[in-house]
Amino acid sequence: MTKTKNFKVDNLWLQRTPTIITAKLNPLQPILPGINLRLPAFDEWASYALYSLLDPENPTAPVYTTPTKLLERLGFARVISSALAGYETFPSDNYQMLEETLHRLYSVEIERFDYWRVRKPGQKRIRKQPVHYRGRFLTSYRLIYPEGVTPADFLPDEEREDINITKGLLPDSRPIWRAKDGPRPEGIEYQIDPELVRGLSKEDPHIGITRMPFKIFELRKTFGRNPTATRVLVWVMRQAANTMTRDIDGLIKELNLDTNHMKYMRNRVVNAFGLLKRERVVEAYLINYEDSAGRGEITFTKSKDWYLTDPEEGLPDLPEGTEDNES
Predict the structure, then answer these.
(1) What stretch of H or E contains 299?
(2) For the chain, which end, N or C, has fewer CB atoms within 10 Å of the first or last residue's CB respectively?
Protein backbone atom coordinates (compact mmCIF):
# COMPACT_ATOMS: atom_id res chain seq x y z
CA MET A 1 0.00 0.00 0.00
CA THR A 2 1.44 3.37 -1.01
CA LYS A 3 1.99 6.26 1.32
CA THR A 4 -0.72 8.26 -0.44
CA LYS A 5 -3.30 5.84 0.94
CA ASN A 6 -2.50 6.22 4.62
CA PHE A 7 -1.51 8.76 7.23
CA LYS A 8 0.33 8.70 10.56
CA VAL A 9 -1.06 9.01 14.08
CA ASP A 10 1.21 9.41 17.09
CA ASN A 11 1.22 6.41 19.43
CA LEU A 12 1.21 8.72 22.44
CA TRP A 13 -2.33 9.76 21.50
CA LEU A 14 -3.44 6.27 20.48
CA GLN A 15 -2.26 4.76 23.75
CA ARG A 16 -4.33 7.25 25.72
CA THR A 17 -7.61 7.29 23.81
CA PRO A 18 -9.06 4.27 25.68
CA THR A 19 -8.65 6.18 28.96
CA ILE A 20 -10.15 9.48 27.78
CA ILE A 21 -12.97 8.37 25.46
CA THR A 22 -16.24 7.34 27.08
CA ALA A 23 -19.07 5.17 25.81
CA LYS A 24 -21.61 7.84 26.69
CA LEU A 25 -22.81 10.10 23.88
CA ASN A 26 -23.03 13.21 26.06
CA PRO A 27 -20.15 12.93 28.51
CA LEU A 28 -19.38 16.57 29.39
CA GLN A 29 -19.90 16.05 33.09
CA PRO A 30 -19.61 18.68 35.83
CA ILE A 31 -16.04 19.15 36.99
CA LEU A 32 -15.71 17.53 40.40
CA PRO A 33 -12.59 16.98 42.51
CA GLY A 34 -10.89 13.72 41.64
CA ILE A 35 -13.08 13.00 38.60
CA ASN A 36 -11.50 13.08 35.15
CA LEU A 37 -13.49 14.49 32.25
CA ARG A 38 -14.11 11.93 29.49
CA LEU A 39 -14.56 12.81 25.82
CA PRO A 40 -17.34 11.43 23.60
CA ALA A 41 -16.71 8.79 20.95
CA PHE A 42 -16.90 11.21 18.00
CA ASP A 43 -13.96 13.19 19.39
CA GLU A 44 -11.70 10.20 18.76
CA TRP A 45 -12.74 10.01 15.10
CA ALA A 46 -12.32 13.77 14.71
CA SER A 47 -8.81 13.59 16.16
CA TYR A 48 -7.83 11.07 13.48
CA ALA A 49 -9.22 13.38 10.80
CA LEU A 50 -7.13 16.24 12.22
CA TYR A 51 -4.02 14.03 12.13
CA SER A 52 -4.78 13.10 8.53
CA LEU A 53 -4.52 16.74 7.42
CA LEU A 54 -1.08 17.35 8.94
CA ASP A 55 1.88 18.08 6.71
CA PRO A 56 3.93 14.85 7.10
CA GLU A 57 7.13 16.84 6.56
CA ASN A 58 6.21 19.47 9.15
CA PRO A 59 3.55 18.09 11.53
CA THR A 60 3.83 21.00 13.99
CA ALA A 61 2.88 23.56 11.32
CA PRO A 62 -0.57 25.22 11.53
CA VAL A 63 -3.19 23.51 9.37
CA TYR A 64 -5.77 25.53 7.45
CA THR A 65 -8.99 23.76 6.55
CA THR A 66 -12.75 24.19 6.60
CA PRO A 67 -15.50 22.42 8.55
CA THR A 68 -16.87 21.20 5.21
CA LYS A 69 -13.56 19.51 4.34
CA LEU A 70 -13.43 17.87 7.76
CA LEU A 71 -16.97 16.52 7.37
CA GLU A 72 -16.00 15.19 3.95
CA ARG A 73 -12.94 13.49 5.41
CA LEU A 74 -15.05 11.95 8.17
CA GLY A 75 -17.41 10.43 5.63
CA PHE A 76 -20.59 12.35 6.40
CA ALA A 77 -23.34 12.26 3.79
CA ARG A 78 -24.52 15.39 2.02
CA VAL A 79 -28.21 16.27 1.66
CA ILE A 80 -30.15 18.37 -0.81
CA SER A 81 -30.84 21.85 0.61
CA SER A 82 -33.94 23.71 -0.54
CA ALA A 83 -32.55 26.85 1.11
CA LEU A 84 -29.54 26.63 -1.21
CA ALA A 85 -31.56 26.17 -4.41
CA GLY A 86 -31.11 22.42 -4.49
CA TYR A 87 -27.35 22.32 -3.85
CA GLU A 88 -25.93 19.51 -1.76
CA THR A 89 -24.63 20.39 1.67
CA PHE A 90 -24.18 18.87 5.11
CA PRO A 91 -26.97 19.15 7.70
CA SER A 92 -26.50 21.94 10.23
CA ASP A 93 -26.36 19.46 13.13
CA ASN A 94 -23.27 17.86 11.50
CA TYR A 95 -21.53 21.23 11.54
CA GLN A 96 -22.63 21.81 15.13
CA MET A 97 -21.34 18.42 16.29
CA LEU A 98 -17.97 19.06 14.62
CA GLU A 99 -17.72 22.55 16.12
CA GLU A 100 -18.41 21.21 19.61
CA THR A 101 -15.77 18.52 19.16
CA LEU A 102 -13.13 21.01 18.02
CA HIS A 103 -13.90 23.20 21.02
CA ARG A 104 -13.47 20.26 23.41
CA LEU A 105 -10.20 19.13 21.82
CA TYR A 106 -8.95 22.70 22.21
CA SER A 107 -10.20 23.19 25.77
CA VAL A 108 -10.17 19.93 27.74
CA GLU A 109 -6.86 19.35 29.51
CA ILE A 110 -5.59 15.78 29.65
CA GLU A 111 -3.05 14.52 32.16
CA ARG A 112 -1.67 10.98 32.13
CA PHE A 113 1.36 9.23 33.61
CA ASP A 114 2.39 5.86 32.15
CA TYR A 115 5.37 3.57 31.56
CA TRP A 116 6.18 2.92 27.89
CA ARG A 117 9.09 2.01 25.68
CA VAL A 118 10.83 5.22 24.72
CA ARG A 119 14.23 6.41 23.61
CA LYS A 120 15.14 9.71 25.21
CA PRO A 121 17.64 12.22 23.78
CA GLY A 122 21.22 11.03 24.03
CA GLN A 123 20.26 7.42 24.75
CA LYS A 124 21.00 4.54 22.40
CA ARG A 125 18.75 2.00 24.10
CA ILE A 126 14.98 1.89 24.02
CA ARG A 127 13.86 1.46 27.62
CA LYS A 128 10.60 1.25 29.47
CA GLN A 129 10.48 4.63 31.17
CA PRO A 130 7.93 6.96 32.77
CA VAL A 131 6.10 9.21 30.30
CA HIS A 132 4.12 12.16 31.66
CA TYR A 133 1.78 14.20 29.50
CA ARG A 134 -0.27 17.19 30.47
CA GLY A 135 -1.89 19.35 27.83
CA ARG A 136 -4.66 19.73 25.29
CA PHE A 137 -4.96 17.91 22.00
CA LEU A 138 -5.10 21.23 20.13
CA THR A 139 -2.68 23.90 21.28
CA SER A 140 -4.20 26.48 18.95
CA TYR A 141 -7.55 26.85 17.23
CA ARG A 142 -8.98 29.96 15.60
CA LEU A 143 -11.43 31.12 12.98
CA ILE A 144 -9.98 32.41 9.70
CA TYR A 145 -11.61 35.38 7.96
CA PRO A 146 -11.30 36.55 4.34
CA GLU A 147 -8.20 38.46 3.37
CA GLY A 148 -8.31 42.08 4.50
CA VAL A 149 -10.68 41.40 7.41
CA THR A 150 -9.31 41.97 10.92
CA PRO A 151 -9.13 38.61 12.75
CA ALA A 152 -11.53 38.37 15.68
CA ASP A 153 -8.56 37.76 18.03
CA PHE A 154 -7.46 41.37 17.47
CA LEU A 155 -10.87 43.08 17.70
CA PRO A 156 -11.90 45.01 20.82
CA ASP A 157 -14.12 43.09 23.22
CA GLU A 158 -17.26 45.00 22.24
CA GLU A 159 -16.85 43.80 18.62
CA ARG A 160 -16.28 40.11 19.31
CA GLU A 161 -17.75 37.23 21.31
CA ASP A 162 -16.35 34.07 22.88
CA ILE A 163 -18.17 31.12 21.26
CA ASN A 164 -16.33 28.32 23.08
CA ILE A 165 -19.00 25.81 24.16
CA THR A 166 -16.92 24.76 27.17
CA LYS A 167 -17.11 28.27 28.65
CA GLY A 168 -18.72 27.93 32.06
CA LEU A 169 -18.14 24.16 32.10
CA LEU A 170 -14.37 24.19 32.41
CA PRO A 171 -12.64 26.42 34.96
CA ASP A 172 -9.82 27.34 32.56
CA SER A 173 -11.66 27.33 29.23
CA ARG A 174 -9.76 29.32 26.62
CA PRO A 175 -11.69 31.79 24.44
CA ILE A 176 -12.51 31.20 20.79
CA TRP A 177 -13.28 34.59 19.35
CA ARG A 178 -15.82 35.34 16.60
CA ALA A 179 -16.60 38.77 15.20
CA LYS A 180 -20.10 40.00 16.04
CA ASP A 181 -20.49 41.75 12.68
CA GLY A 182 -18.93 41.59 9.24
CA PRO A 183 -18.19 38.62 6.95
CA ARG A 184 -18.44 35.07 8.18
CA PRO A 185 -15.28 33.03 8.80
CA GLU A 186 -14.13 31.12 5.74
CA GLY A 187 -12.20 28.41 7.54
CA ILE A 188 -10.33 27.34 10.65
CA GLU A 189 -6.69 26.95 11.62
CA TYR A 190 -5.37 24.50 14.20
CA GLN A 191 -2.20 22.96 15.61
CA ILE A 192 -1.90 19.64 17.42
CA ASP A 193 0.17 19.67 20.61
CA PRO A 194 3.85 19.19 19.64
CA GLU A 195 4.08 16.44 22.28
CA LEU A 196 1.48 14.48 20.28
CA VAL A 197 3.39 14.61 16.98
CA ARG A 198 6.89 13.68 18.16
CA GLY A 199 6.41 10.24 16.64
CA LEU A 200 5.75 11.87 13.27
CA SER A 201 8.74 14.21 13.47
CA LYS A 202 10.88 11.47 15.11
CA GLU A 203 12.01 13.98 17.69
CA ASP A 204 13.04 12.22 20.91
CA PRO A 205 11.49 11.31 23.24
CA HIS A 206 8.69 9.57 21.39
CA ILE A 207 7.00 6.18 21.23
CA GLY A 208 6.50 5.95 17.49
CA ILE A 209 3.54 6.13 15.14
CA THR A 210 0.79 3.98 13.68
CA ARG A 211 -0.22 4.14 10.04
CA MET A 212 -3.92 4.46 9.39
CA PRO A 213 -5.57 4.04 5.99
CA PHE A 214 -7.71 6.94 4.82
CA LYS A 215 -10.47 4.42 4.24
CA ILE A 216 -10.88 4.09 7.99
CA PHE A 217 -13.21 7.08 7.76
CA GLU A 218 -15.54 5.01 5.58
CA LEU A 219 -16.19 2.94 8.72
CA ARG A 220 -17.12 5.88 10.95
CA LYS A 221 -20.83 5.54 10.23
CA THR A 222 -20.73 1.86 11.29
CA PHE A 223 -18.32 2.15 14.23
CA GLY A 224 -18.71 5.78 15.30
CA ARG A 225 -21.42 5.21 17.91
CA ASN A 226 -19.79 2.05 19.22
CA PRO A 227 -16.64 2.96 21.20
CA THR A 228 -15.96 -0.71 21.99
CA ALA A 229 -15.95 -1.66 18.31
CA THR A 230 -13.84 1.41 17.50
CA ARG A 231 -11.23 0.41 20.09
CA VAL A 232 -11.09 -3.12 18.72
CA LEU A 233 -10.84 -1.77 15.16
CA VAL A 234 -7.89 0.50 15.99
CA TRP A 235 -6.21 -2.21 18.08
CA VAL A 236 -6.46 -4.79 15.28
CA MET A 237 -5.16 -2.27 12.75
CA ARG A 238 -2.11 -1.55 14.93
CA GLN A 239 -0.98 -5.16 15.26
CA ALA A 240 2.20 -5.98 13.38
CA ALA A 241 1.30 -9.66 13.09
CA ASN A 242 -1.06 -10.56 10.28
CA THR A 243 -2.51 -13.50 12.24
CA MET A 244 -2.57 -13.67 16.01
CA THR A 245 -4.36 -15.16 19.01
CA ARG A 246 -5.36 -13.09 22.02
CA ASP A 247 -7.01 -13.82 25.35
CA ILE A 248 -10.34 -11.98 25.35
CA ASP A 249 -10.17 -10.90 29.00
CA GLY A 250 -6.64 -9.60 28.48
CA LEU A 251 -7.81 -7.56 25.51
CA ILE A 252 -10.69 -6.10 27.54
CA LYS A 253 -8.23 -4.88 30.17
CA GLU A 254 -5.79 -3.51 27.59
CA LEU A 255 -8.57 -1.52 25.90
CA ASN A 256 -9.70 -0.09 29.26
CA LEU A 257 -13.19 -1.54 28.88
CA ASP A 258 -15.57 -2.14 31.78
CA THR A 259 -14.00 -4.96 33.78
CA ASN A 260 -16.90 -4.87 36.27
CA HIS A 261 -19.15 -6.49 33.66
CA MET A 262 -16.83 -8.97 31.99
CA LYS A 263 -19.44 -11.30 30.49
CA TYR A 264 -21.15 -8.35 28.79
CA MET A 265 -17.85 -6.95 27.53
CA ARG A 266 -16.78 -10.34 26.14
CA ASN A 267 -19.93 -10.34 24.03
CA ARG A 268 -19.22 -6.76 22.93
CA VAL A 269 -15.70 -7.63 21.86
CA VAL A 270 -16.85 -10.73 19.94
CA ASN A 271 -19.58 -8.67 18.24
CA ALA A 272 -16.92 -6.10 17.29
CA PHE A 273 -14.96 -8.81 15.48
CA GLY A 274 -18.16 -9.68 13.64
CA LEU A 275 -18.31 -6.08 12.40
CA LEU A 276 -14.64 -6.22 11.41
CA LYS A 277 -15.24 -9.31 9.31
CA ARG A 278 -18.34 -7.82 7.71
CA GLU A 279 -16.33 -4.70 6.78
CA ARG A 280 -13.42 -6.92 5.59
CA VAL A 281 -10.92 -5.55 8.06
CA VAL A 282 -10.28 -9.14 9.10
CA GLU A 283 -10.54 -12.07 6.74
CA ALA A 284 -11.59 -14.52 9.43
CA TYR A 285 -11.75 -15.01 13.18
CA LEU A 286 -12.32 -17.96 15.49
CA ILE A 287 -13.40 -17.99 19.14
CA ASN A 288 -12.13 -20.78 21.38
CA TYR A 289 -14.47 -20.63 24.37
CA GLU A 290 -13.40 -22.01 27.74
CA ASP A 291 -16.75 -21.78 29.54
CA SER A 292 -20.33 -20.54 29.25
CA ALA A 293 -19.37 -17.10 30.59
CA GLY A 294 -17.54 -16.38 27.35
CA ARG A 295 -13.97 -16.69 28.58
CA GLY A 296 -11.52 -17.84 25.96
CA GLU A 297 -9.25 -16.79 23.13
CA ILE A 298 -9.84 -15.18 19.77
CA THR A 299 -7.71 -15.89 16.71
CA PHE A 300 -7.98 -13.59 13.71
CA THR A 301 -6.34 -12.89 10.36
CA LYS A 302 -6.19 -9.35 9.08
CA SER A 303 -7.16 -8.44 5.56
CA LYS A 304 -4.14 -7.60 3.40
CA ASP A 305 -5.57 -4.12 2.78
CA TRP A 306 -5.45 -3.42 6.51
CA TYR A 307 -2.02 -4.87 7.13
CA LEU A 308 -0.22 -1.51 7.42
CA THR A 309 1.86 -1.61 10.58
CA ASP A 310 5.57 -1.14 10.07
CA PRO A 311 7.39 -2.57 13.12
CA GLU A 312 10.37 -0.32 12.41
CA GLU A 313 8.29 2.81 12.93
CA GLY A 314 6.36 1.96 16.08
CA LEU A 315 7.55 1.25 19.60
CA PRO A 316 4.89 -1.09 21.02
CA ASP A 317 4.47 -1.58 24.75
CA LEU A 318 6.53 -4.14 26.59
CA PRO A 319 4.88 -6.41 29.16
CA GLU A 320 6.07 -5.99 32.73
CA GLY A 321 9.37 -7.76 33.29
CA THR A 322 10.43 -7.75 29.66
CA GLU A 323 14.10 -6.91 29.19
CA ASP A 324 15.09 -3.75 27.30
CA ASN A 325 16.10 -4.31 23.68
CA GLU A 326 18.92 -2.72 21.78
CA SER A 327 17.72 -0.04 19.39
Answers:
(1) strand 296-302
(2) C
Classified as helix, coil or strand, 189 is strand
Residue 79 exposed, middle or buried by CB count within 10 Å (0-12, 13-18, 19+)? exposed
Residue 195 lies in a domain: yes
Beta strands 243-247 and 88-89 are unpaired
Give whole-number Cα distances, 111 to 13, 136, 189, 209, 268, in Å: 12, 9, 24, 20, 28
Identify the CA nearest to 213 among candidates 44, 52, 5, 1: 5
> CB of 193 within 8 A of CB of 137?
yes
pLDDT digits (tens, 9 = 90+) for 237-271: 888 888 999 999 999 999 988 888 899 999 999 99
| Range(s) of the domain holding residue 87 | 3-214
* Helices vs. strands in the chain: H and E counts, helices first: 9, 15
Integer Cα distance of 63 and 200 in angstroms: 15
Give the count of domains, the chain. 1
77 domain-assigned: yes
Taking 70 as the pLDDT cut, the residues of the chain under it are: 1-4, 22-37, 80-87, 119-125, 307-327
* Nearest CA among 207, 206, 154, 223 for reference residue 182: 154
- In whole angstroms, what is the distance from residue 254 CA to residue 274 CA? 20
Using CA atoms, how far residue 71 sits from 38, 93, 143, 245, in Å, is 23, 11, 17, 36
* Sheet with 296-302: strands ordered across: 243-247, 296-302, 282-289
Cβ–Cβ under 8 Å, residues 99 and 66: no
What is d(CA 297, CA 34) in angstroms, rounded to the nearest whole number? 36
User: CA 269, CA 150: separation in Å to the nearest integer?
Assistant: 51
Phi, psi of 248 (to 5 degrees): -65, -45
Tell me, yes or no, whether 81 lies in a domain: yes
Q: What is the 3-state secondary structure (H, E, C) of 86-149?
A: CCEECCHHHHHHHHHHHHHHHHCCEEEEEEEEEECCCCCEEEEEEEEEEECCEEEEEEECCCCC
Residue 118: Cβ-neighbour burial (10 angstroms; 0-12, 13-18, 19+)? buried
